[in-house]
Hints:
The protein is mainly alpha-helical. Helices cover 51% and strands 5% of the residues. Residues 1-32 and 177-187 have low confidence and may be disordered.
Amino acid sequence: MPEAVAPESQDWEFRRSLPSEEPPDWTDYVSAEESLADHLKAQMLADLPERLVPVAEFLAESLDERGYLAVSLEEAALATGCTYEDAEAAFARLRQCEPAGVGATDLIDCLLLQLRGDSSLEGRLARTILRNHVEDLAARQAGRIARRYRVLPEVVEAAFAKILSLNPFPADGTPLTVGPSQPRREAPARPDLSIRLNGKDWEVTVHGPEPSMFTVSRSYRRRLEQLRESLRASKDERRHVGEFVQRAKDFIESLGNRRRTLHRIGRYLVESQPGFLATGRYQYLRPLTRTKMAEDLGLHESTVSRATMGKFVEICTGEVVPFEVFFKPALRVRKMIEEILATENPRNPLSDERIAEILAQRGVKIARRTVSKYRHGNRLLSSHHRRSA
């Protein structure tokens, strides 16, 4: 460490910095989490035909907090303009990715995906149990299964143990954030961006510290000037101080770039999602992906992903919503189902088929079974149980 540069109270960076053989990068000091969607795309896109890339990206961004696929293949094909067969091909590739079990449609499917490559006797029996004997598994009826398949009870118990060791929620227990990517925050969330309607004019405000609040350490600036003026200055010290002064400048400049990017994204949402921003009604959300936004703004998709990752938007109603609501079509439909059920007649609750009809009237065409899946995902009771309640 150069002795001539005396650390000040503000120079915490000084104390952790040392000369390096490789050019330093300020982003090494910035906390950034890779989203589960980004992790899956990195695995899929390298060997996918170009025509499958949009639907593969869409599927990767349509996983719920458990890692299960939250949209139907029909929705994915419709949203990306591909054929159903292409959606099936991208779906099959997604299900080959790590962590094992992602892209499952339900719990049994998730567990079967994790057992797919297990050719042991216990593994094969475990798959058979999951497909045909879940009730016996829940009741731990090893003897019944042993007699059925003529194996020792110990083998059945080993298959039970193998099943119980699997992860029912593959998106949990990983350092990756779900869906590109939202770290879980406790409510109330602080908005990173506010979008308000003032009369006929939209106002987009980016919150957080301004780049002007930061500056390069005075001691580093003074020392760099001295080194540049001195003919006897140490090359190593000159390189060290110059590197970190430039690093600080790049960091401050990047903060400004990030704020400008976030503001551009806010203006883009004003143009593409005015109905939702003004009313908070999820039925007014239009299909949107980070890929599409990046293309329209002339940015790289990773730039949009990092700019929106884990961030929140305050809309005109005062509600603070995660950026994910703009990129997850399944979330839009789930929220619409919640809105429909919130206004139903409790004495005559709506069936899933009737909910599907109402959604179709609002421009969302999904099957009754998909309504049922989303309702279960939101922990909403069936019409029979809602009437009883």
